[in-house]
Amino acid sequence: MEWQSRYQKARDDPTSSPKSYSITPAGEINNARDYPTPPGGRQVRRGHDVVIELTVGTSGRVTACRITDPSPDPEADAITCRLATERFVFRPRLNASATAASLVESPVPDAIGLKLTPKRPEPQYDYFIVATTQPGLQIRGLATHDRQGGDSVIAFTNLKENQGISDNEFAFRIPKGADVITNGGN
Fold first, then answer.
1. Is a pLDDT exceeding 60 seen at residue 1?
2. Is the pLDDT of residue 95 over 60?
3. What's the gap between Cα 146 and its chain centre?
């Protein structure tokens, strides 16, 4: 019931929730007719909750469901995920100017896409997409869309963070035979 009351409040007053909120065009997921009676009767489920984690695409549809805290009834938990995937549609969180935040489909799997659009038109590209993990925000890929309609995607794999690389690896060394021009031209 606690979930239902939070859901209804967010649905009725979108400003009450800092996160996205859902609408269910095909009905709720708490109708007893959607769930078979478990061995021992429905009282087996009473007083127990299942916690699910949903992945939502930019269309607002659920693209994946994961059970993070199961109830004593695994069959009911699986049905809950299936129903949430079939029935829930999410509206995106709005930014300060009441436009949808720039969260887009990721160009690489298992990541979210953050669309970066320049404030002023650029001659070389329309936008960049940075693909990151969630949580953690580890960069998994980059994508660009150019003015001619072309897309370029770079995917990063086998990334290793904080490997203790010495600052000396990034020191600039003047190549032998190079001419060095200083501010004074000497």
1. no
2. no
3. 24
Residue 164 lies in a domain: no
Tokens of 1: 């019931």
Cα–Cα distance measured from residue 141 to residue 156, given in angstroms and rounded to the nearest whole number: 5
Distance CA 19, CA 85 (A): 18
The two tokens of residue 53 are: 């984690």
* Tokens coding 122: 């650029």
Please indicate, yes or no, whether the overall pTM of this predicted structure exceeds 0.85: no
Residue 16: pLDDT over 60: no
DSSP 126: S
* CA distance linking residue 133 with residue 151, whole number of Å: 21
Tokens of 124: 């070389």
- Reference 112, options 92, 94, 126, 98; nearest CA is 92
Interior/surface letters 65-75, b for 16+ CB within 10 angstroms, e for the rest: beeeebbebee
> Do 97 and 82 form a contact (C-beta atoms < 8 A)?
no
Per the DSSP assignment, residues forming a β-bridge with 52 are 67
Domain containing residue 49: 2-91
Task: Extract the tokens encoding 69.
Answer: 């805290």
Tell me what the mean pLDDT of segment 8-22 comes to: 45
- 72 & 11 share domain: yes
Query: Same domain, yes or no, for 14 and 84?
Result: yes
